[in-house]
Amino acid sequence: MSPIDSKKLRNQYLLLYFLTILIVGTGSFISVYSNYGDFENRIKAELLREAHITNVHVEASLTDAEKSLQYGLDRYTQQLNVGKGADELAYQIMRDTRRIFAPFTADRAFKLMLYLDEQGMLRATSEGLSKTPIDLSDRLYFQTLKNDPHKPYAIGDLVFARTTGLLTFHLAMPIIDGNGKFRGILAQQFVVNEISKNLQISLDGLSDLKIFVHVKGGNVTFAYPSPLNEDELHADVALVMDLSQLIKHDGQKSGSIFTTASNAFSQSAFVGYAISDVYKLETSVSVLKKTVLIHFINQTSSLLIYIAFAFIALTMMIWIFYRYAIKNTLAIELSHLDPLTHLKNRRAIDAELPRLWKESIRSQKPISVLFIDIDHFKIFNDSYGHECGDIALQAVADAIKSAVNRPLDFCCRWGGEEFVVVLPDTDERGAVSMANTILAAVRSLRFNFMPDINPQISVSIGVASMLVTEKNKTDDLIDMADKAMYMAKQNGRDGYVIYGKPS
Description:
alpha+beta
């Protein structure tokens, strides 16, 4: 196979390969992209569901706490108005209230009930009187009710409790005496980790979620996972403030939003949110887009592996076909090649000449044929042997090949000691010039078969040219050149004769 044919075949298969990869790759991309779109929608729905579930957990705890606080508050106010001691009374009422409501609030993450006087000093808890009063006047729930005692309740922010050291938030209710004077608060303490344990039961989908609950316009009330120290708590507060702005901008009661890297997140994230009806809690559940992509890859790994194997199999299949085509083309090429002279053979000219013939008809340009025969080759063969005869054939073939050097010119071994040269787009004058070139090349050949024996060799050439029409046949031109070659032999050999011209 010639380098040009091999390169052309390789380029064709490369084009086929890249087109196939493009089609399969585009289809695979559309499939994966569509699956990711569906997966992303499921994630958004899951985030929204988790936001509603968290709202239910926290709001249920607040509702039960409000009932127990109201019960204790009513008893405390009645007793206070008849002049009983505030601290001891508060302790007894909180202890009894916890005992009464304990069967109904066992899973509500309730910790201590607190009594703070009008100065914000912790005087008693549901577990006993405070031996050393703790100043809690800076707590949000106390400041809110002290500044506005007519509020029915206040929800505190997320803090590390000074009483227990645990991460907590509080629901507080004001104590108002018979004269309408603010006398302190009763508060219920909630342990965040206990609520988190209840939430984990429902978190069976994604991992690495961030869940925040806060009163609309206020600080963080609940966070999952729980911050481990004050620094993490402050970071969560900043994050919630940004999320609150995003939720406010979205303007819905619940929904899903996507945020790019911003103050809230260092990376792009999906956020589901819901606002509760009773306490107006804003709950946001977020997950980084990177995490979503990792989960998607894990869940679609079998599809991605299948696509990878499909590309590998496709590559191998086209490679195998390419190798087969190379071998097949090479076999065809060898079948058109004369093994001795390495010129094309008669089968090749039977395949090539019709194409050149049609091109000559289309372009209306002449085509010429040279029919070449080695003079007295049988005598040469008998005199010097077949091995020398083969050498002479190879030398003549090389001489013809060196003369026929235009891209479309075609030469072959017709059979025995005969050769044919086809010259497209060549008139009679050009054909004669080519014949003279070949004659000169052959005359210059020298053979040194034996000492002092240097035989020479010559050829006779028949030249035929025509402007092809539909009526003509390819055999006509070769027959004309063949006849002219015999006329050249009759004229003494070692020369050429033009068909139809006087010799």
